[in-house]
Amino acid sequence: MSEDVRTGFEAFQPETFAFDEQSEAEIEKILRKYPPGRQASAVLPLLYLVQNQMMRQTGSGWVPRAAMDAVAKRLEMPPIRVYEVATFYTMFQLRPVGRFHLQVCTTTPCWLRGSDQVVAACKQEAGIRGFGETSADGLFTLSEVECLGACVNAPVLQINNDLYEDLDAERTIALLQAFRRGEPPPPGSTIGRIGSAPEGGPMTLISEIEPPPAPGAE
């Protein structure tokens, strides 16, 4: 990526950032949770606000450096402390991503259940060659991530903030096509699994039992 010689920032970095009205309203609620002098504890939720605001305004959910400086100023903390948090947690994107951020879990449970097929399907449908790339139409960015905490319904694909579970190559392609059409399906299992029940439905506790009467009840 080329550099802006005047600022030293990467060319995609905006020079300024300001919280919009929706974010300001959320900031007020967040800061009320922390006692005076402890507002730095709100750095994580404010970074999330930034990423969500960028999604609303630009169609790309990421955290510009100018926004980190705005968070630092609002929370009265050194900017380097905000940079440390933003660069530590992988859920914060530090450069623009596609409108739909495809985050594929490839750790052991998902890999055993076919995450390689999910990765291949994402590359095929989005026209992407590898992780970290964005499709030519700007819709999809593909990332490899660690465990997403839904191992029982592996393999799992997170798109923006939602999890899609029980995927294979065919269902992954259909999922991305739905997003391309502007018709994202509800998150969760793609095979109709309820919660973490076994495939095909629950095998135990399938009948309702009347609770015993409360003590002293007639």
H/E element string? HHHHEHHEEEHE
Strand content: 5-15%
Reading off the top of the CATH hierarchy, the class of the largest domain is best stated as Alpha Beta
**Helix content range:** 25-40%
Structural class: alpha/beta
Secondary-structure arrangement, i.e. CATH architecture of the largest domain: 3-Layer(aba) Sandwich
Notable characteristics:
Arc Repressor Mutant, subunit A; Glutaredoxin; 7 helices; disordered N terminus
Structure description:
- By secondary structure, this protein is of the alpha/beta class.
- It has 2 domains: 21-88, Arc Repressor Mutant, subunit A; 100-185, 3-Layer(aba) Sandwich (Glutaredoxin).
- The chain contains 7 helices and 5 strands.
- The protein has helices at 21-31, 43-58, 65-75, 79-88, 108-112, 115-126, 169-180, and strands at 100-105, 140-145, 157-159, 162-165, 188-189.
- It has a 5-stranded mixed sheet with strand order 2-1-3-4-5, with helices on one face.
- α7 links the parallel β4 and β5 (188-189).
- The protein starts with 20 loop residues before the first helix and ends in a 29-residue tail after the last strand.
- Mean pLDDT is 90; it is low at 1-9.
